[in-house]
Design a protein that fits this description.
The protein is of the alpha/beta class. 36% of the residues lie in helices and 10% in strands. The protein contains 11 helices and 8 strands. An 8-stranded parallel β-sheet has the order 2-1-3-8-7-4-5-6, with helices on both faces. Helix 1 packs across helix 9, helix 7 (227-245) runs parallel beside helix 8 and helix 7 runs parallel beside helix 11. The protein is globular.
Length: 390
């Protein structure tokens, strides 16, 4: 193992652009990359531009007819076939859509390859984490499911146990669907309750099928969950499951849309809690998977104030140089933010809530508390299937 982390980056990933007014503004990727550079994290990383995923790789998860439909819509957006989820309000077709989507997927697949082969200690693709895309259709701003493709590639390379941990505010439905019947993949998703948020899936009772029963884990959090509850729920579920599953690789998805400023969801999590969970994923990868960790981005629609800071923290943790929350953000970056967006950039790498206070599940739970009810529902649904005590 080289000991250095890899940052997967090609400027062309910003061509993944659904157009003016769409929440997934690619400026969030550009600003993250610039902030990583402004804080000097480049010196701790190997920056790698991988090739786009080829058709044989895409077919590890996606149906051939769907790939053909994406290519057709990419060449002629007005011909997009809505039956594949293309040309919709969520996923408008745009010229070059296939190429941009395949490029993002290629970065995540290459990240998985580098970590599996020992070429990198950890690898980050914050442009990735497009976890809603299904084998036969686009959904939720996602065309190709790079997270599922990275996992499928790990399995192809010989991995026997891969853990996927998704802390995006939305359920990681596409990844769960891809491995619903595959006992080699443990998918864990912490998300806002499906009663109040897209995609209306991710109930605790969704636990996998056949030989894979007990390998799909869903923590459906009540709207309004804040830092203490979010971090408590993570630690009440994820560490025990990883200890039992013994993954060879951890793939984690770090959508920043759990944040209290995010316009598309209803959790109340701070940047500081996001950093705490990123740190926990890193530590769990070392504890259970010999440090093999692939970290992806995901959702996040507060594109100036939240996303760049959150994912820069993720990069710093992976690089072995975590950014102190009290770090003052360089003025040059803030000037670039204003020039690009006419918004004022944040001043520091914290929301002022560090360190995050939370109580461990082992200290007891309150049966009348909605957060604890959500955690208990998940533990009751899954833990016995894995031989663990509720």
């Amino acid at each position: 193992m080289s000991g250095r982390a890899q940052l997967m980056w090609d400027e062309a990933v910003t061509d993944y652009d659904f157009g003016a007014g769409h929440p997934m503004d690619p400026v969030r990727l550009e600003l993250t990359r610039r902030l990583v550079g402004a804080l000097g994290l480049d010196r701790e990383l190997e920056v790698v531009a991988a090739r786009p995923a080829g058709e044989s790789t895409l077919r590890l998860v996606h149906r051939e007819d769907y790939i053909d439909a994406v290519k057709a819509a990419s060449a002629e957006p007005r011909s997009a076939d809505g039956s594949y989820g293309l040309g919709t309000v969520d996923d408008p077709a745009f010229a070059g859509m296939h190429e941009a989507s395949a490029l993002i997927a290629g970065q995540s697949v290459a990240a998985a390859e580098a970590v599996w082969r020992g070429d990198a200690a950890h690898a980050v693709n914050f442009a990735g984490g497009l976890h809603h895309a299904m084998p036969g259709g686009a959904a939720g701003f996602c065309v190709y499911n790079d997270a599922a493709l990275a996992i499928a590639r790990l399995l192809e390379l010989g991995a026997e146990r891969v853990a996927y941990v998704d802390v995006d505010v939305h359920h990681g439905d596409g990844v769960q669907a891809a491995f619903w019947e595959d006992p080699r993949v443990l998918t864990i998703s912490l998300h806002e309750h499906p009663r109040t948020l897209f995609p209306q899936t991710g109930w605790p009772q969704e636990t996998g099928a056949g030989a894979a029963e007990g390998t799909a884990v869903n923590v459906a959090l009540p709207a309004g969950t804040g830092d203490a509850g979010w971090v408590r729920a993570f630690h009440a579920v994820v560490p025990e499951l990883l200890a039992e599953f013994r993954p060879q690789v951890v793939v984690s998805q770090h959508g920043a849309d759990t944040h209290f400023e995010d316009p598309l969801a209803h959790l109340a999590v701070s940047l500081d809690a996001q950093r705490a969970v990123q740190t926990a994923c890193h530590e769990l990868a070392h504890e259970h998977a010999e440090g093999k960790w692939v970290a992806l981005g995901g959702g996040g629609y507060a594109v100036v104030d939240v996303v760049p800071r959150s994912w820069t923290h993720l990069v710093g943790i992976a690089a072995g140089r975590p950014v102190d929350p009290e770090t003052v953000i360089p003025e040059g970056w803030r000037q670039e933010v204003f020039a690009r967006t006419r918004q004022l950039g944040p001043l520091r790498m914290t929301d002022g809530r560090w360190p995050v206070a939370w109580s461990a599940w082992e200290e007891g739970y309150d049966p009348a508390d909605r957060l604890d009810q959500a955690v208990l529902a998940t533990r009751r649904a899954v833990f016995p299937l894995r031989g663990l005590l509720v």
